[in-house]
Write a sequence for this structure.
């Protein structure tokens, strides 16, 4: 989709890969409770949030070092639109 709009993809990777099993379990539990919330993080223990943030910091470092993840609960795309030639 990004390429179709004329953008050059500089980086594309999935993100939140290492915590994906926990995201999946949380979403199943929320669906089972049939409760609506404004955020996936609503009602989550602060210690769990801190642990997930630490794991995602490691994942971010891996992405910066050129590792790409094939799946995850989010997508990360960095792209630029080439400048048009001036007339």
């Amino acid at each position: 989709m990004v390429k179709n709009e004329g953008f050059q993809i500089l980086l594309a990777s999935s993100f939140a890969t290492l915590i994906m099993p926990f995201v999946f379990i949380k979403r199943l539990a929320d669906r089972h409770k049939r409760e609506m919330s404004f955020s996936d993080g609503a009602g989550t223990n602060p210690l769990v949030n801190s642990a997930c943030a630490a794991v995602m910091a490691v994942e971010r470092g891996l992405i910066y070092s050129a590792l790409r993840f094939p799946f995850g609960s989010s997508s990360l795309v960095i792209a630029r639109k080439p400048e048009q030639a001036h007339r």
